[in-house]
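Work Package 3 (structural annotation) set out to generate three-dimensional models for the target panel prioritized at the project kickoff. During this period the team completed the workflow that converts sequence records into discrete structure tokens, so that structures can be stored uniformly alongside our sequence database. As a representative example, we reproduce one entry of 269 residues exactly as it appears in the project archive.
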Amino acid sequence: MIRLVTTDVDGTLVKDGSHVLDPAYFDMIRRLRRKGVYVCVCSGRQYHSIHHLFAPVAGELFFLAENGTLVRTEEKILQTWPIDPDYYIPLIRDIRKIDGAAAVVCSPRIARVEAGEDSEVYRFLKEGYSYMLENIPDLTTIPSGEVLKLSVYHERAEKGLLPLTSSHWAEDLALEPSGVVWLDICPRHASKGNALSFLQDHLGIKKEETLYFGDNINDLSAFAQAGLKGTVSNARREVREAADFVGDSYENLGVLKELQRIFAPVLTE
């Protein structure tokens, strides 16, 4: 029996950057919780952004935020995995050398940029993702021990960020695409899958009791921790091939439909 439902957000439940979730998901979460099923949201987004999206039911959820570098509830932080301080400043300097790239430094409670409040990346995160965000003159002045993740924004991330993905950084850290315009950089031992494993241990839940929904490459590590793996029709090919089933697109509430199907016997009791 599934005891833990975990889902990605952007591209799985909503369009990338959306700050509105269909209210039918809130009702489903409440119904699952009444039946004793835990629900967890797993995203590359900042915790504040996810909390805003799920505000009506946030107190009933677990959150795996910042691409698996932060595990928490609404009330407290359970675990973090920060980037090695020795890597931080050299990495920022290398990002600055790439034309069109903008770094977003993610800490447990706030994200910071140096691109300016009038920059596209600042507006994108503040207005689209509802981020707790601060613009500062110099990202290298941030205490490196509190940095969980660096997100690098580029209009054509896959090609534009090749100076990073084809460099030694790909060996030192975990570099994962997150949507079309983002590259997430985390500690090598941090991932959605690692965070999910921590939560499973915390709750006493087995892999075979876990259902995971995702659509992108950074969801594959969590697939490895789930007994049942689902995706949506708009997902990347690699994810569709790795999934146990493919539902409808996020526009057509594919995850909601699959939850209704999978839990029909339980929810009708």
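The chain has a mean pLDDT of 95.
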